[in-house]
Write a structure and sequence with these properties.
Oligomer: single chain
CATH superfamily: CoaB-like
Low-confidence stretches: none
CATH class: Alpha Beta
Order of helices and strands: EEEHEEHEEEHEHEEEH
Distance between the termini: 13 Å
Mean pLDDT: 95
Radius of gyration: 17 Å
Largest sheet: 8 strands, mixed
Strand order of the largest sheet: 5-4-1-6-9-10-11-12
Number of helices: 5
Strand content: 25-35%
Bound molecules: cytidine-5'-triphosphate
Number of domains: 1
Length: about 210
């Protein structure tokens, strides 16, 4: 099958030398792209900046901002059979990035942020994608309940939910523990290398 994967953080410019980003390493999304390529699928990886090597046999589109990621997904998603949205996309971006470096002046500086477009949330309605859709949910409380709300709100077939308040899994870690939240059931995937979770997710694609 043809699979699209988003991965990594986004970078939202404040001025030519500064940006807003987050702690995503990209490891989970890259592990999924790698596992899917090994399983014989045709994979397109759309990723924000990471220090990782693009897995062998995977097509790659590098992006920086949430808006660039949206545009890349919008143009490629319609011909895909499945999609996994593992990127940690910025929810807000500076309203008006400065064309020149912001000089140090007053004692405080306010930055106005505006909402980015929800890429996963646009897959069904806006883009009209009908394939198997997997989202991630980074939660710090009520993990299963919040993931189930996201599953319904975004029309996903599976939400992979992480408790990001734990420091031993997620973000920079090589390991992950996740709740796999399907429309009709929830499964616990116990703490294991991200590579093992990636193989499990790839095995679910297509239902
Ligand atoms: N996501 C996306 N585009 C955005 C924000 C998030 O595609 N602009 C995707 C992520 O890749 C992930 C899912 O949405 O698969 C959920 O991300 P998360 O940050 O947990 O949820 P949000 O919908 O942003 O909600 P909140 O931060 O309020 O929990």
């Amino acid at each position: 099958m043809k699979l699209l994967v988003t991965a990594g953080p986004t970078r939202e410019p404040i001025d030519p030398v500064r940006y807003l980003t987050n702690r995503s390493s990209g490891k989970m999304g890259y592990a999924i792209a790698d596992a899917a390529a090994h399983a014989g699928h045709r994979v397109l990886l759309i990723s924000g900046p990471t220090s990782l090597d693009v897995p062998d046999g995977v097509d790659f589109i590098p992006v920086e901002t949430a808006a660039e990621m949206f545009a890349a997904v919008e143009s490629h998603l319609p011909r895909m059979d499945a999609a996994v949205f593992a990127a940690a996309v910025a929810d807000y971006t500076p309203a008006a990035p400065a064309a020149r470096k912001i000089k140090k002046s007053g004692d405080s500086l306010s930055l106005e942020l505006v909402k980015t477009r929800d890429i996963l949330g646009s897959a069904r309605g806006g883009i009209g994608f009908t394939g198997f859709l997997v989202g991630f949910a980074a939660e710090t409380e009520d993990v299963e309940a919040n993931a189930r709300l996201k599953l319904a709100a975004k029309g996903c077939d599976l939400i992979v939910a992480n408790d990001v308040s734990r420091t031993d899994i997620g973000f920079d870690s090589h390991e992950n523990e996740a709740l796999l939240v399907f429309p009709d059931r929830t499964e616990l995937f116990p703490k294991a290398p991200k590579h093992d979770l990636a193989i499990r997710i790839v095995s679910m694609l297509g239902g």
